[in-house]
Amino acid sequence: MKSFFRISFMALIFFSYANAARNNGSSEDSSKHYDGIVAIINGKIITSCDLEERIRLVLFSIGGDTAPPEVKARIKQEVLKEMIQERLKEQSAEKYAPKGGWVTDEEIKAAVTDIARRNHLDYVAFCKLLKSKGINKDILWQQIRVNLSWMAYVHARFGRYINISESEITRTKQEIRAKQSKESYYVRRMFFPVSNPKNEEAVQAHVNNIKRMLANGMDFSNLAKQFSSSADARQGGELGWVFPGQLSQEEDAALGKMPIGGHALVRNSRGYVILLLHNKKSAGLQSFTTMRLAQVLIPVKDPNPSKEVVMQIESYLNSLKEKSANARKFLEEAKASGICVISDPTDITSDDILPSFRPLLTSLQSGGVSRPLWTPDGVVVVCMLDRRDETVKEPTREEIREHKRSERLYLHSEHEIQEQMRRADIREIKEFDDVR
């Protein structure tokens, strides 16, 4: 699983994970109209304040802080849909919760701590980051509680019916070995099911919203985590390396024609798919490069610095490089300067690098330091602490079992939430379309 939250200078090169929200389960009678109510779900309300806070978090997490008004309006529509589903999940989980609830406060704090760690922060620093962005941390805490509770509920209700046989695992291992001789693709995708033909137009509008967000520069990974309806959504839609035959025929056909870094919209028998092709390998190539990187940031508040400022910063960084025999020495010099923000070392593979940055980093040798990169947060230099070539490992039987089990639990989860939506009393209050 990749990073759960967005820190923009790290997200420049690495995939980031963003998915956070807050539910406010008021028990007020929904038969009356209240100012500030944007939706009523089985008598429980979502207020305009709830929606505004959620939108603020989503915009930050997907890099849409400066998005134009029309994009923010589309994000608002998608966020409200997601909040409605989350309210239903919360209601179901609470209804069947065991004594003491599905999840403890300690488990929630552990999840938040893990999010912070993946972003090279401790728990306290992560809370300060949210506060500095004007984001109520309770939004994220409650979202984690709802998601963990829902997963526990689905597992308790359907887990006993899932049995992955030894023969099925054996067949899967044989298929994996057979496909190693075929061209493979490193893919991320978003999936939007069409469970009823009557919903075709609504789903198509939803997909078009996502396409426009991508066209406006929104991060694919973060949009997938926020809006995709598939088991891989929590990983930013990351499928990893796939072979022809693993996806639908329509997706296979699209991947065969796509350039690296390209997107494609596909309609298959189950719904709509947006694909992102990160990389491709020739048949039989089963190796990859592992890199241990650290990043050095010099913060620059002015989004349009003068030429003099640019030259001063780049000259300073070049002087640090000249004084440093290797990447580790560069980090020591940068840390001693007192003006640089330094990330913890991170292990990634060449497949984790955004296509636009792959040439820069794949040419950087162990101990090397990249040229300065200008980002919205300032100037970043990447230090290659180590790099090595490794062979792709075949998944173990237990890994295959857990993967298939997770897939089937996800299908049960999707079916359950669709049933909840079908039976629920949901009313959206259109008067509050001016929510920002």
Topology overview:
Elements: H1 8-11, E1 37-41, E2 44-47, H2 48-61, H3 69-95, H4 105-118, H5 123-132, H6 137-158, H7 166-179, E3 184-193, H8 200-215, H9 220-227, E4 238-242, H10 249-257, E5 263-267, E6 271-281, E7 287-299, H11 307-323, H12 327-337, E8 341-342, E9 346-349, H13 358-362, E10 373-375, E11 378-391, H14 397-423, E12 426-428
Antiparallel strand pairs: 1-2, 1-12, 3-4, 3-6, 5-6, 7-8, 7-9, 7-11, 10-11
Helix pairs in contact: 2-3, 3-6, 3-8, 4-6, 6-14
Count of DSSP strands? 12
Which H/E pattern describes the elements? HEEHHHHHHEHHEHEEEHHEEHEEHE
Query: What is the structural class?
Result: alpha+beta
Q: Would you identify the CATH H-level superfamily of the largest domain?
A: Porin chaperone SurA, peptide-binding domain
How far is the N terminus from the C terminus?
31 Å
How many domains make up the 3D coordinates?
Answer: 3
CATH architecture of the largest domain: Orthogonal Bundle
Task: Kindly report the CATH topology of the largest domain.
Answer: Triger factor/SurA peptide-binding fold
Mean pLDDT, nearest integer?
80
Quick one: overall form? globular
Q: Which segments are poorly predicted (pLDDT under 50) over 5 or more consecutive residues?
A: 1-34, 432-436
Q: What can be said about the biggest beta sheet?
A: 5 strands, antiparallel
Strand content: 15-25%
Q: Name the helicity range.
A: 40-55%
Rg result: 23 Å
Number of helices: 14
CATH C-level name of the largest domain: Mainly Alpha
